[in-house]
User: What shape does this take?
Amino acid sequence: MKYLSILLFLILTTSCQITETIHLNPDGSGNIETIAIRDEHSYMQLSGENYAKEEIFRDTTYVFQEYITKYAENFAKLPASEKIVFNQYKDVKVHLKESSFEKEVKNTFTQSFNKTEDIADLYKTVEYADDLKHNYALSAEEHYYHVSFSFDGTTFKRVVKVTDLAELKKKQDEIEGFKKKTSGFKLVQTLTLDYHFPRKIKSVSNEKAIICSDNKSLKLVLQLSDCLQNPESASLEVVLE
Assistant: This one.
């Protein structure tokens, strides 16, 4: 059985803070970093007495291309359409850390890109690496939305599209059940978009976005559970001067 996506797993079992940072250059190239950190105070509430009993340590670093190379036999059997998907991740760098001794769970994904359309849907990286290792078909995944980006020199877009309505409904029910179960807790569940542009910002589609003093960068803090229940609410359009 395939496990839940990293975002849904974290929100339903730990609660977390996710920051997606993009630095965009004038020619459309740049880099993206996505960091998911377990919020320890939230996790203490959810785990109770088990919090002090954990004995887990993992510290793993890899580049996705290493999985393509190591599991070349599995990769070779994939249809061309799936090879295209996996190749989009080949330069993604991954650092996964889980330490019950340091009380830290932190997953970091970074990618440099020549154009925004090359940015991978980083939230799926770990699952796709697992697919290559175990020779799973992409059709076995339970993803229900896709994140992509574009930049035409003036307008930057973060586009989130629902891809499976039935799976969306299933996840909405799971998250709603989690909310009811944890209604008495004060949990931190945020997605922060931290974007830096080569020119001044003219307009932003989400009125909650805060434009920084340099007028070239912004921050938008969203509730993670809201984004998972209504993925398209995390879309964003930024127009530059």
Observations:
- The chain has a mean pLDDT of 89.
- DSSP finds eight helices and twelve strands in the chain.
- The radius of gyration is 18 Å.
- The CA atoms of residues 131 and 137 lie 7 Å apart.
